[in-house]
Amino acid sequence: MDGLEKLIDLMPQFLSDTGKTFYIVGLSMIFGGIGGLIIGTTLYVTRSGGVLANRAVQAIAGFVVNFFRPIPFLIFIAVAQPLARAIVGTGIGDEAAIVAISVAASFGIGRIVEQNLVSVDPGVIEAARAMGAGPWRIIRTVILPEAFGPLILGYTFATIAVIDMSAVAGFIGSGGLGNFAIVYGYRQYNDWATWAAVLIIVIIVSIVQALGNAWSRKVMRR
Does pLDDT of 141 surpass 60? Predict the structure, then answer.
């Protein structure tokens, strides 16, 4: 049986792993996206001159992000296994991968959020202060809405990075297209299976990028 025939026989598994990729990426972006938004906003508002300026909090948050963010994800999976066991009861599989990806993504997204919030016109913030708005109201109604368009592009980039992470997570037994390419492609010397997984990942990434670009343009035109 040649590689293409094997791929046809593996089609149910291929479709299942495609669905698992959406599942892992979706949940990881929800948890990591929320965590990253909190981290990035904290980094921005606590900096000198920020609406909640606090040198100690800014220094601690910056140190934590700078410590964990450069760790290669393949290594970070191993580092995060004890945390995954504490949260979901196992260090392998889909749930463990979601924990590792969510934590890793939150640090990267945090920096993306911070960089996009820096682009907000300080004059808009000062105008809100002059009108008597408090720090939390300024964050909620001025800073985040003003940066919404760039944030969409930032989260689009982060989603693509998380798709890449989900493929790497196949090394700890997580399902998804990465696991399919490793188990049924690389280990069984089936190039058809490997390239089928690659093709679907490329299509997913292209769709995510196109949707993110379109949504961002629509928001920024307003």
Answer: yes
DSSP string of 13-24, one letter each residue: HHHHHHHHHHHH
59-86 CB burial, b ≥16 within 10 A, e <16: eebbeebeebeeeebeebbeebbeebee
What are 59's two structure tokens?
A: 């220094």
Q: Hey, is 187 helix, strand or coil?
A: coil
Indicate the residue type of 220.
Answer: M
Give residue 98's pLDDT band: very low, low, confident or very high (50, 70, 90).
very high
106 Cβ neighbours under 8 A, 6+ residues apart: 31, 32, 33, 35, 36, 39
Q: What are the C-alpha distances in Å from 214 to residues 33, 71, 149, 220?
A: 20, 32, 10, 10
Angstrom distance (rounded) from CA 86 to CA 38: 22
Tokens in use for 74? 């393949």
Domains annotated on the chain, with CATH: 3-221 (1.10.3720.10)
- HEC string for 36-60: HHHHHHHHHHCCCCCCCCCHHHHHH
